[in-house]
Design brief:
The protein is about 25% helix and about 25% strand. The protein is an alpha/beta fold. Helix 4 crosses helix 5 and helix 4 packs across helix 10.
């Protein structure tokens, strides 16, 4: 075991504080990663505050991890010391079920093992990226292309793949009209990726406060959902609407913006249940869908795509001592567009 500096929440809703955790010794197929940057995802806040249900504490959050391999196990074939790598939202799965065998480990029948706040197959609790080192099986580690700086690549391991996967799944490309709901950590990546895929992109945000940013990121249009006229003007406009927000929406209103056979896909995860009148789906044969991150192979595909198109996250680099303040700023929508921790400051 190796002692590693980290930031952890000692209990639900408690401020994060500096501590020491133990990382396992490197096994045959493991890589030891010196973490350089870790993104702050809204999911971290939901879990630290038990917004999604009971959680395991102490908790070291962080599933947007970018760093460099410093040691490899004797059976490792994918990586060598010095490689630039990333780790996303999961670090293991059963590897035997139909979904794992299809490269959809996130939908593992037995449940994937989360990068933090989970119990691994070895019975040990997982700790995430708000730390200086992590040991991960090579099968759940991805390569970060040389064309991407590690700091702007870190958020791609969650925000990037979470938006890339449904955009690809629902056939986004030239000739398609896509709306992105919310221009935050997820939404700004959705705009960049949908634009690079060749779609006509519209941002639907509560106000026009971030309009200039949205257009610079690649949006063709920008509308305020706080203006009722938006829903009249855009009725029946979109092939796909990707909702990235974690607040409950008026789903009937947003479904009215879809063309016949259009899809409203959700990657945001509100803490509260939603109400839905099914007639808003029946009229027009529309689809209400969900999507959760992506498999390991698709995550690598996303990183390669982003490197090819020069896409990284828009980040604000912070010291570890600023994590608690950053959480409050995320809740106040006061970040453009992803906080990233410089783990050298832990």
């Amino acid at each position: 075991m190796t002692s590693v500096a980290a930031y952890a929440a000692p209990a639900a809703k408690a401020p994060l504080e500096r501590t020491t955790i133990e990382r396992r010794d490197v096994r045959d197929h493991d890589v030891l990663i010196d973490i350089q940057f870790a993104g702050i995802c809204h999911s971290d806040i939901h879990q630290v505050r038990e917004g999604w249900g009971e959680a395991i504490f102490p908790m070291v959050p962080g599933h947007e991890i970018a760093g460099v391999v410093s040691e490899v196990g004797p059976a490792v074939t994918k990586f060598k010391v010095g490689d630039r790598v990333g780790v996303g939202c999961m670090v293991d799965s059963c590897r035997e079920c139909e979904h794992c065998l299809a490269g959809q480990e996130q939908y593992c029948v037995r449940g994937n093992i989360g990068t933090y706040g989970a119990v691994g197959h070895d019975g040990e609790i997982t700790y995430g990226g708000y730390s200086q080192k992590v040991v991960v099986d090579e099968a759940f580690t991805v390569r970060i292309p040389d064309g991407l700086s590690l700091d702007v690549a870190a958020p791609l391991l969650c925000a990037g793949i979470t938006t890339y996967s449904p955009l690809k799944r629902f056939g986004v490309g030239p000739g398609k009209k896509v709306a992105v709901v919310g221009l935050g950590g997820l939404g700004h990546m959705a705009v960049k990726i949908a634009h690079a895929l060749g779609a006509e992109v519209t941002v639907l945000s509560q106000s026009l406060r971030k309009k200039d940013d949205g257009l610079k990121l690649g949006a063709d249009h920008y509308y305020a959902t706080g203006d009722p006229a938006t829903f009249t003007e855009l009725a029946g406009s979109f092939d796909l609407i990707l909702s990235t927000v974690s607040a409950p929406l008026d789903f009937g209103a947003y479904l009215s913006l879809l063309k016949a056979h259009g899809t409203l896909a959700n990657v945001g995860a509100p803490e509260e249940p939603i109400a839905l009148n099914l007639f808003s789906l029946l009229g027009g044969g529309k689809t209400l869908a969900g999507s959760m991150i992506g498999g390991i192979a698709e995550t690598q595909e996303m990183l390669d795509f982003c490197a090819e198109h020069g896409i990284g996250a828009e980040i604000e680099l912070i010291a570890a001592s600023e994590i608690n303040t950053a959480y409050e700023r995320v809740l106040a929508s006061d970040v453009r567009y992803r906080f990233v921790i410089d783990t050298a400051t832990i």
